[in-house]
Specification:
This protein has 420 residues and is of the alpha+beta class. Helix content is 33%, strand content 26%. The strands form six sheets. It has a five-stranded parallel beta sheet, with helices on both faces. It has a five-stranded antiparallel beta sheet with strand order 12-15-18-22-19. Helix 5 packs across helix 6. The radius of gyration is 20 Å and the shape is globular.
């Protein structure tokens, strides 16, 4: 199989790496990719939200599978353009991708499907926002209705900050706060059948202890040994099945990845958000654990073949990823700084580096090119071992002004140790 991955971040490097380990994948391409993906795939510089450019590239390289990593191409209808040309693609069509592209649409679908989620109001004016904030009370949850690269959500006890965010966004969804730990569940769907992957947990705040501004994610780990028994089965019954059927009822066959962000409340799991693609950095740890060849699995979502998959194979142990962010992230991240120590980090046993916001420098050295620069993955028989390897590896990296959280999976590793 010849495969093309769209995107250039840490999630896409993780997808390229997973596909490279599939013996059925004979040729790999990535667009635009990054210095990390170039070691495993041929990179191509194109506009990934241009459906014509993507289909022309896919046709030229004779791709038998196109995996769309980020949300922007999905919302732009790139999957539609590929399917119109008869090219297999992993990712929902434009209308189905509205489940991520519009928080208001997602809430509408959840309500119609009877999916457990937070009470919410769609607001367009300051008066409507004020009324909703009064109704739900603090902590205030205000979400930009459209795509915001994982940074469109404000959860705060500061009323003025909540109102300011609403003014900056325009149309927003104001929700009640859901108390309880949050987890991410990835589900592969062919529009009729669905297959869950193990749950993971990510860390959204920039700094230790869940402090600082919201980010696209500063780290993640899997599996979740503390999660309730039967969590995936319950979510498939109460959330995923009803959602896929509701989308089909609206004429939108949901093919690709459904990301279910959950809060484990005292009343049971409730949906915080839906996304139409793998989460980043959760994809890095979930894909690391997957032993089933990923190429055929992703292709089955497009061909309607997931019904024939009865179980998936998973590697033993755990994976932890730690995100190295550039100075100024998530505000105005520094770019163009030289990155050192990559070979040393990759040499740590049981660890490896995935590139996210990187680029080639003028001397063919690697430089920073975004807020989240690297995602360093550690693996081991236990979470504690995986954490140790991830942090040993990330400590080898040299980047001026960079930072990372030191508490990724710390509490879960302690919980695991007590239970052993």
């Amino acid at each position: 199989m010849k495969a093309l991955v769209l995107g250039g971040g840490g999630r896409e490097h993780a997808l390229v790496r997973a596909l490279s380990l599939d013996p059925g994948v004979t040729e790999l391409h990535c667009a635009p990719g990054n210095p990390g993906t170039s070691a495993l795939a041929d990179n191509h510089v194109i506009n990934t939200v241009d459906g014509l450019a993507v289909t022309e590239l896919a046709a030229r390289i004779r791709a038998e599978l196109v995996v769309i990593g980020p949300e922007a191409p999905l919302v732009a209808g790139v999957a539609d353009a590929l399917r119109d040309r008869g090219i297999p693609v992993f990712g929902p069509d434009r209308e189905a991708a509205r489940i991520e592209g519009s928080k208001a649409f997602a809430k509408e679908v959840m309500q119609a499907a009877g999916v457990p989620t937070a009470r919410a109001r769609v607001c367009r004016t300051p008066a409507q926002v004020a009324e909703a904030l009064d109704a739900f009370g603090p902590p205030y949850v205000v979400k930009d209705d459209g795509l915001a690269a994982g940074k469109g959500v404000v959860v705060t006890g500061d009323r003025a900050a909540a109102e300011r965010h609403a003014r900056e966004c325009g149309r927003v969804v104001v929700e009640e706060f859901l108390d309880g730990p949050e987890v991410s569940l990835f589900v592969l769907s062919d529009g009729v059948h669905a297959v869950p992957l193990p749950a993971a947990q990510d860390f959204k705040r920039a700094h230790d202890g869940g402090t600082g501004p919201n980010t696209g994610g500063m780290g993640a780990y899997a599996p979740l040994g503390w999660a309730p028994d039967g969590l995936a089965e319950e979510v498939m019954t109460s959330v995923v099945g009803p959602t896929i059927r509701e989308m089909a009822k609206r004429g939108h066959r949901y093919q690709g990845l459904l990301y279910v962000g959950l809060a484990l409340t005292s009343e049971g799991p409730k949906v915080v958000e839906f996304n139409a693609r793998f989460g980043d950095p959760e994809a890095q740890v979930v894909l690391d654990r997957l032993a089933t060849p990923v190429g055929t699995l992703l292709q089955a979502a497009d061909t309607g073949g997931l019904g024939g998959i009865t179980s998936l194979e998973w590697r033993n142990g755990a994976a932890v990823t730690v995100v190295l962010a550039s100075e100024g992230y998530p505000g105005s991240p520094a770019k163009g700084d030289a990155i050192g120590g990559l070979d040393e980090a990759d040499a740590v046993e049981g660890a490896y580096v995935l590139h996210a916001g990187t680029a080639w420098g003028p001397d063919r050295g690697v430089v920073s090119n975004g807020g989240r620069v690297l995602s360093v993955v550690g693996t081991g028989e236990t979470l504690a071992a995986a954490r140790e390897r991830a942090y040993t590896a990330v400590s080898k990296v040299e980047l001026r002004g960079s930072f990372y959280r030191s508490d990724i999976a710390e509490e879960a590793a302690a919980h695991e140790a007590k239970g052993s």
